[in-house]
Amino acid sequence: MTVLDVTIVNVALPSIGKDLSFSQENLQWVLTAYAITFGGFLLLGGRAADLLGRRNVFMAGVVVFTAASLACALATTEEFLIAGRAVQGLGAAIVSPAALSIVSTAFPEGSERNKALGVWGALGGSGSAIGVLLGGILTKYLGWEAIFYVNVPIGILVLILAVPLVRESRVVGARRQYDPLGAVAVTSSLVLLVYGISKAPDAGWGSARTILLLAAAVALFAAFVFIESRTAAPLMPLRIFRVRSISGANVVGVLIGAVTFSMFFLLTLYVQQVLGWGALKTGVTFLATAGTAIMAAGVAEILVNRIGAKIVMAAGFAFIALGLLWYTQIDVDGTYAVDLLPGYLLTGIGIAFAFVPVSIAALAGIEERDAGLASGLINTSQQIGGAVGVAVASTIFTTRFTTLLEAGNPPPVALTEAFQLAFWVIAGIAGAGMIAALTMLRRVELEVEPTAAVAAAGLVPNRMTTAILTTALLSGAGDDEGRPPGRQPS
After folding, report:
1. Which sign does the torsion angle of CA 139, 141, 146, 150 carry?
2. Most buried one in 153, 215, 233, 320, CB count within 10 A?
């Protein structure tokens, strides 16, 4: 639900704007309000899960997210919807790291955890594509309210199943140890960072507002690091960075977020504004990416067990880069089979091959007491990367589009060429991700259990992984070296 809601709103924005009489400048806040609170509170949510109990915090987050989803569906004014989206983002920031830390602590490090994190990584990688697909279907047949209503029964079902199925866990003896100054500093820093980046395409990267917001975010983060190095019970113990995989995985996580968020952002605009496809057809086109990512996830998990996270992650970025290079050739009169489908298939494979190993590497070698924190870190990295990627892509696209219009090009031609340039830049970011994976993570061989070895011999996804991922699609919904929203153009 939390990943879906990053993109599920995209194709519904025109309907939302029309029904609630949104002004053009405020419509983007339906996306930005969610991104700000989601990215800003992830670290706090992850540490809270470690200290207060991972299942308790997870369930609390589901309650907040589900209630906020219902409020969004019932919204009758733009202010109410924006406020609901902000609360929804807060719920997502509580749910995501708690859920990932539950997965990581439920399985011993090695092939069993890698299978579980393979499911997680595939959900994260395909979630954006599935969000666009479901957004189109629900908006077409049930109205934009349905994209929020759909979370309510799922949230209730999750709450019913969590108590009997999820084991409670927390850091023993740490319940009363808190770091309020650190929590305020890092949350404020991340909120300002996401807000500043999200608004930069509108205000300008060199504007006083953007510079001041980003400078304040950096200053607050520096204060946070200082506080963490002095306090007895830090929100983010700096010892976590002694695990070599943490830094590399989170740098790669930033680049994955930047590439995937911006890619889906640009593709959604291209098929609607240039090809003129409606919400439903736009959503259905992304089924190829989502389906490919789900099928490739099992293969990615097996390959991580055989050759390590580093090589698989680099291969994922290579596939994504190839897909993006294909998109640089899109045409004004493009067709699905020629201009989109090959790229959809390439990026689907790449998303699975990138998200699965980064989820594994981000938690490799982490002690159980820091599982929530590590989960919050990797989620934060991906959200911050997504905000940066969309902002950069939006800035490049808008600047190029304006220049081409002023030169006398017809709008469809100007739009297409602006998209092409933006895809070139994102392909470059994907290339940087491949280099980062190869240089910042060291290859470590895993001891593969017999069952995993049998599966690896045929490179066949295990049945549990396939079953869980298929259900998710249909419902909508000792070593430390790395083992295994942006602006809508008017």
Report:
1. negative
2. 320
Single out the residue of 260, 403, 430, 422 nearest to residue 330, CA to CA: 422
pLDDT tens digits, one per residue of 404-451: 998 889 999 999 999 999 999 999 999 999 999 988 876 543 333 333
**Burial level of 174, CB count in 10 A (0-12/13-18/19+)?**
middle
For the segment 184-200, what is each residue's pLDDT rounded down to a tens digit?
Answer: 888 888 888 878 887 78
Which is nearest to 38 in space by CA: 267, 257, 324, 237? 257
Q: What is the mean pLDDT of the chain?
A: 79
Residue 139 CA to residue 145 CA, distance in Å, equals 8
Nearest to 290 by CA among 360, 344, 353: 344
Residue among 124, 122, 155 nearest 3 (CA)? 124
Residues 6+ apart with CB under 8 A from 384: 39, 190, 193, 194, 197, 254, 257
Q: Using an 8 Å Cβ cutoff, are 218 and 408 in contact?
A: no
Is the Cβ–Cβ distance between 353 and 316 less than 8 Å?
yes
Q: What is the CA radius of gyration of the chain?
A: 21
